Amino acid sequence: MTSPHEELLPATRRALLHRIAVAQSAGRAPSLTAAVVRGGRAVWHGARTSVDEHGPDADVQYRIGSITKTFTAVLVLRLRDEGLLDLGDVLEKHLPGTGAGEATIAGLLAHTGGLAAESPAPWWERTPGSLRPELADVLGERPLLHPVGRRHHYSNPGYTLLGALVEEVRGAPWEDVLRREVLEPLGLTRTSTRPRPPYAGGWAVHPWADVLLPEPAEDLGRMAPAGQLWSTAGDLARFAAFLAHGDDKVLSAQSVREMRAPAAPAEAADVVDGATYGLGLQIQHRDGRLLVGHSGSLPGFLANLTIAVEDDVAAVVLANCTSGPRLSAVGADLVCIVAEAEPRIPEPWRPLPDVDASVLELAGPWYWGTNAFVLRLIAEGGVSLEPLAGGGRRSRFRSNGDGTWRGLEGYYAGELLRAVRRPDGSVSHLDLGSFVFTRQPYEQDAPVPGGVDPEGWRGIG
Fold it and tell me: Which residues of 80-100 are buried (b: 16+ CB within 10 A; e: fewer)?
């Protein structure tokens, strides 16, 4: 067993190397580099390459494609946290005249704004951004294909609009704002909008022959906030740690937690696949684990960042080929290898620093009708309420500081929990959004669903 700050065990390191070696070989990638993060820092790096004795290290840049969107989302959340906008605002309020102004900012972040997936032809990833100098050139004559907010439809132009929103509110180019507000504070010195040596060249691999074709690296212009960035395994490892834990220099833990929460309606196929989308982050359920992150691709490059928040493990995988290994599967496998071989060691149990006696008396079993629940005290004056056994509605509740609590998740998110007391100060019941929880099932003197038969419980003779 290891502590979070010790290096990985030799068997774990070999399993990681084996996984990326299979990915590079079977996927026929000219090169593939990967990193694993645990406990907030990089604990492993590996690489495979077709060039003898020339493996890329964690400082070699690759193009990361749509992982750029997560960076753009961070900038938008910063504007929200500063009170400069609300995620429920329509775009028109801050960036008028786009023709897509009825989409909300949250909808653009979660790809529910109703916009087209791509900009008008020619294909924006393979042509100079100078062909699309204005937002109108990116959006085309019919920006909206779907009713706003009704479905998840991945949209690259949507993130162009978010980049333009950042520029409008900050009064500076997206690139400058990103460098000043995210890259420099997080120490991401090897992340940039244009390649800086050492960097990998992008290649296409012939589908039926082991030969290569060099791919051009276009400047995406207006589309940059959707996919322009170059980065390294080392920098993305630091970015993954930030997305898992937050950093008050950039975004709080609460705000990055909000980014990781589902924010888009799922279609039937998404439910089957266990996939959805948050605010600039992809979310998937795989092998019993909730994974968040983002994939990216541009001609010549593939990229993936995957985080298992509960395990406190993340993986970064980069390759310089247009198609080949499925990096989302590789990233998920790297995370699972570490999480399963070296499970996270829990923090030591510690008692609460203090407790309010009036809250302590609420701890223990409660009943909603005949359904048994248990209320527990948690940190910072909060409580949790969950079924005593099996599945069902459960939530943590944040203290309001006045003897009431507000639900944080699930069915009870936002609902008010309060203890209702009798004239003598004793607790009669808990009220949770009109649901009455009592100390005994169908307690006779309690409000609905209190005792429904004056003769009480009985057997059948």
Answer: beeeebebeebbeebbeebeb
Helix then strand then coil, in percent of the chain rounded to 5, is 30, 25, 45
Q: What is the DSSP letter of 269?
A: H
How confident is the model over 232-253, as a mean pLDDT?
A: 98
Q: Tens of pLDDT along 288-346?
A: 899 999 999 999 999 999 999 999 999 999 999 999 999 999 999 999 999 999 999 98
What pLDDT is attached to residue 69?
A: 98
CA distances from 321 to 305, 342, 362 (A): 17, 32, 59
In the sheet with 383-387, reading across from the earlier edge strand, the strands are 364-368, 371-377, 383-387, 395-399, 404-407, 416-421, 427-432, 435-437
> How big is the CA angle at 163 (ends 82 and 142), to the nearest 5 degrees?
125
Count other C-beta atoms under 10 Å from residue 206's C-beta.
10
Residues in the chain: 461
* Strand positions, DSSP E, 187-324: 203-205, 212-214, 230-231, 275-277, 282-286, 289-298, 301-308, 313-319
Give the integer Cα–Cα distance in Å for 30 and 200: 10
The total of other beta-carbon atoms located within 10 Å of residue 193's CB is: 18
- Whether 297 contacts 12, CB under 8 Å: no
HSE, CB side, 13 Å, CA atoms: give it for residue 225. 29
Give the up-direction half-sphere exposure of residue 135: CA atoms within 13 A in the CB hemisphere: 19
Burial class (CB in 10 A: 0-12, 13-18, 19+), 258: middle
